[in-house]
UniProtKB/TrEMBL annotation, chain A:
It comes from Glycomyces luteolus. It holds the Pfam family BPD_transp_2. The chain crosses the membrane at residues 37-57, 69-89, 96-114, 120-141, 148-166, 190-206, 227-247, 259-279, 310-331, 343-360, 367-387. One of its GO terms (molecular function) is transmembrane transporter activity. Its main location: membrane. This is Xylose transport system permease protein XylH. It is found in: Cell membrane. GO terms for cellular component: plasma membrane. Part of the binding-protein-dependent transport system for D-xylose. Probably responsible for the translocation of the substrate across the membrane.
From TrEMBL, chain B:
Keywords: ATP-binding, Nucleotide-binding. The keyword Nucleotide-binding applies. GO terms for molecular function: ATP binding; ATP hydrolysis activity. This is ATP-binding cassette domain-containing protein. The keyword Nucleotide-binding applies. InterPro entries: AAA+_ATPase, ABC_carbohydrate_import_ATPase, ABC_transporter-like_ATP-bd, P-loop_NTPase. Residues 3-240 form the ABC transporter domain. It comes from the Bacteria. SUPFAM superfamilies: P-loop containing nucleoside triphosphate hydrolases (SSF52540).
């Protein structure tokens, strides 16, 4: 297929495919072929769950519920995307849930109690997340306290801080329409279609560019058909999603019309693109994996390990802040339980179910989104089935344990231990 | 001479680990460094690699006296060390490991294709045929392949002296032979190689000269062609062999 550089296999397509780091949405095939499970368990889980809930509760497959799923899962998915960075370097952040609560509470106070404009409130919330991350990271990296302990302490402390900000448990309602639109708003139909075209065009251009560069350099590359098929299948999936979300999903269309791609989908997509780029296409991302894989090797290679580790905590807490904003927007209020309860565990679960390793060195942003989808579908579907919260917790716990078990076993076999 | 150590001394508190060590390594030769545990081999390597500061003597590179105060200084002088525990990231692939810490970028984007291209060129210049897929994680490689990656990582940077710390210690017979052949090729390409080993068969298979350390002193530096294994064993265990090696006073009567 290609002019081979010496010491290369004869025209293998797998290396090029596995290596296609820009391919984060539909790369499952390549991973299966090369024997890496990667995101496959999460994808298989999503399909199985959709079939199961679709049959037992037909309303699960309704357009309204599809839009609902995005809203329900968005906050956890945001936090999970941030957690991936901390998991990749082999640490954990147990405080991410309540960190999101603190940030949401600060936003609510600035917005509602002080009556300040929304950009200031959102900016302050994210800045708070960044400061929290700096603090946690510095304690872990410079003082050498295990991240488990630091963030467990922060978990308790942040819970207290939320209570103090909210003055012993009162809740603050959010009236600002812009902030409420983060999780509750929808794009116009034409906006959704425009965004779809731009996304597919951008993805296609990136893929083709990359393919052409590899051909020009005579590196191992995939057949053009595979690249085209990947672009086409992603395009088809996104087109179907936009089409469905653009359908009328209001119960009483005469009274209130409800159509369009939820704003929160666009936010998740943008965050996904940015963090995937950072993780796979920048030196910093490469160093994150190196620190998680073998810290000593990273030190000897001249990587500024301390800075990389602190940055991971900053990104995690920053994303927790965004998760908190989304959660507050969805509930249109902040109460002492925002970011509490099961939010953290669902977020960690989402990352691990998607394929991030608790042992470090492995994990992708895509994994967090897919795992977040699994968690959201389980909760949504079981809610529709009328199962109690107790059963839902139990099942989610079992799924998390299963995912962690797969992780531990694949690590034990060593062979599967890769970052894809 | 590429590298010359003259009167090198290093002490940790009251313990003199290296005392008055002389050693010269030329481009294109493999110099083996042998010695018993605690003889000071690792300390010597770390002094040259810039991890330990020296307490006395001088390090001369290309005829100029240099102060090597960190691994980056050593790298800037073309000195690369392949440590015993390899220092590879299991979760990164071969190319990513080779370029770790010195990634090629265009703007702020990693230039993976350029790195892969250069990695393939380097491996083929070393006549490495054992690594077929540059994009497989290092975790899936055998011990010999991992050692090959570690060595290739050291020569990727126009290095002029490669120091190998026990590169064959954990390898099987066939893999050891491959790595020894690779070491020989490094020297044939004009690099200076300092090769540390306990295994005298390996040493005699690949070395041009053999330097024996005994209790922190340089017992003798022999031409491999003129030396015998039993001579080297005596130098390692007692610091002297016949007329070679340290005087009786130096060895402190340790010889039976």
């Amino acid at each position: 297929m290609s002019t081979q550089v010496e010491s290369r296999p004869e025209a293998g397509t797998e290396p090029g495919a596995v290596r296609a780091v820009a391919d984060h949405v539909k790369g499952y095939w390549a991973e299966v072929r090369s024997g890496e499970v990667g995101a496959l368990p999460a994808v298989a889980g999503i399909i199985a769950l959709c079939v199961f809930f679709g049959i037992s509760q037909p309303v699960f497959l309704s357009v309204g519920n599809l839009a609902n799923l995005f809203g329900q899962g968005a906050a956890v998915a945001c936090i999970a995307m941030g957690l991936v960075f901390v998991l990749v370097i082999g640490e954990i952040d147990l405080s991410a849930g309540f960190a999101s609560g603190v940030c949401a509470a600060i936003m609510a106070v600035i917005l509602t109690n002080w009556g300040m404009p929304w950009p200031l409130a959102i900016g302050a919330a994210i800045a708070t997340g960044v400061v929290i991350g700096l603090l946690l990271g510095t304690l872990v990296v410079k003082l050498g306290i295990p991240s488990f302990v630091v963030t467990l302490a922060a978990f308790l402390a942040f819970q207290g801080i939320v209570l103090m900000i909210l003055e012993e448990g009162s809740n603050i309602t959010i009236h600002n329409e812009t902030v409420k639109a983060v999780a509750g708003g929808n794009l116009e139909r034409w906006q959704g279609w425009t965004l779809l075209v731009l996304t597919i065009a951008a993805y296609g251009a990136l893929q083709m560019n990359r393919w052409r560069r590899r051909v020009a350099r005579s590196l191992v590359h995939e057949p053009l058909a595979v690249v085209a098929a990947r672009i086409a299948s992603l395009g088809a999936l996104l087109t179907a999603t936009v089409f469905l979300l653009n359908l009328e999903r209001s119960a009483n269309p005469q009274i209130i019309s409800l159509t369009g791609v939820p704003v929160v989908v666009v936010i998740l997509g943008a965050l996904f693109a940015v963090w995937t780029f950072v993780l796979h296409r920048t030196r910093f991302g490469r160093h994150l994996y190196a620190v998680g894989g073998n810290r000593e090797a990273a030190v000897r290679a001249g990587v500024n390990v301390d800075r990389v580790r602190i940055a991971a905590f900053v990104i995690c807490s920053g994303m927790a802040a965004i998760g908190g904003i989304v959660a507050a927007s969805r509930a249109a209020s902040v109460d002492p339980n925002t970011g509490g309860s099961n939010v953290l565990l669902l977020s960690v679960g989402a990352a691990v179910i998607g394929g991030a390793s608790l042992f470090g060195g492995k994990g992708t942003v895509r994994a967090a989104l897919l795992g977040g989808a699994v968690v959201a579908i389980i909760n949504n579907g079981m809610g529709l089935m009328g199962l109690s919260a107790g059963v839902r917790f139990g099942v989610t716990g079992a799924v998390l344990l299963l995912a962690a078990g797969v992780d531990a076993m694949s690590r034990g076999r060593g062979k599967l231990f890769g970052r894809h | 001479m590429f590298l010359e150590l003259t009167g090198l001394s290093k002490r940790f508190g009251p313990v003199e680990v290296l005392s008055d060590v002389d050693l010269a390594i030329d481009a294109g030769e493999v110099c083996a460094l042998v010695g018993d545990n605690g003889a000071g081999k690792s300390t010597l390597v770390k002094c040259v690699a810039g991890i330990h500061a020296i307490d006395g003597g001088a390090i001369t590179v290309d005829g100029e006296t240099r102060t090597i105060s960190g691994p980056r200084d050593a790298a800037a002088l073309g000195i690369e060390v392949v440590y015993q525990d390899l220092a590879l990231c299991d979760n990164l692939d071969v190319v990513e490991n080779l370029f770790l810490g010195r990634e090629k970028v265009r703007g702020m984007v990693l230039d993976d294709d350029a790195m892969e291209h250069l990695a393939a060129e380097t491996l083929s210049s070393l006549a490495v045929r054992t690594i077929r897929n540059l994009r497989q994680p290092v975790a899936s490689l055998s011990g010999g392949q991992r050692q090959t990656v570690a060595i290739a990582k050291a020569v990727l940077w126009n290095s002029r002296l490669v120091i190998l710390d026990e590169p064959t210690a954990a390898l099987g017979v066939a893999q050891t032979r491959q790595v020894l052949e690779l070491i020989r090729r490094l020297a044939d390409q004009g690099l200076a190689v300092l090769y540390i080993s306990h295994n005298l068969n390996d040493v005699f298979a690949v070395a041009d000269r053999i330097a024996a350390l005994y209790l922190g002193r340089m017992a003798a530096v022999l031409d491999a062609a003129d030396a015998t294994q039993s001579q080297v064993v005596e130098l390692i265990t007692s610091g002297r062999s016949g007329s070679l090696g340290l005087g009786a006073a130096d060895t402190n009567g340790a010889r039976p």
